[in-house]
Amino acid sequence: MLRAGLLASLVKTSLKRTVHRTRPNVLMDEGIYARGRPGTNVGPWQSFPSGHSALSAAVACATARAYPEIKGPAYAAAAGVTTAQVVRGAHFPADVLMGALIGIAAEAAVHKLTHRRRRLGMRKSSVA
Description:
Vanadium-containing Chloroperoxidase, domain 1; mainly alpha
């Protein structure tokens, strides 16, 4: 779970530093919308993608995989986090969608790599 969250955060941060998209509340309050402005690595210019959505999706997917009996509440919690980001004007819908996709992909990648390592480790120990 921790590895998935860290990977999601790394990808999210890299994209935020590349895209530089105005947050919706800046658009509503100041009438400014822009993308790709160099030197804008500050909060109001880091809307895309949503880090809260990336992390909540990664944690929800990891939780659902580890504890299938509570996958419904895990996914509902992640949906609540992503929805709140749009409602409070911190992100556009595309921001939270991309954040969620990053979280889902990060968890899947970590699971696949971890599973592969375990399989390889089992083969090595069974050969010895």
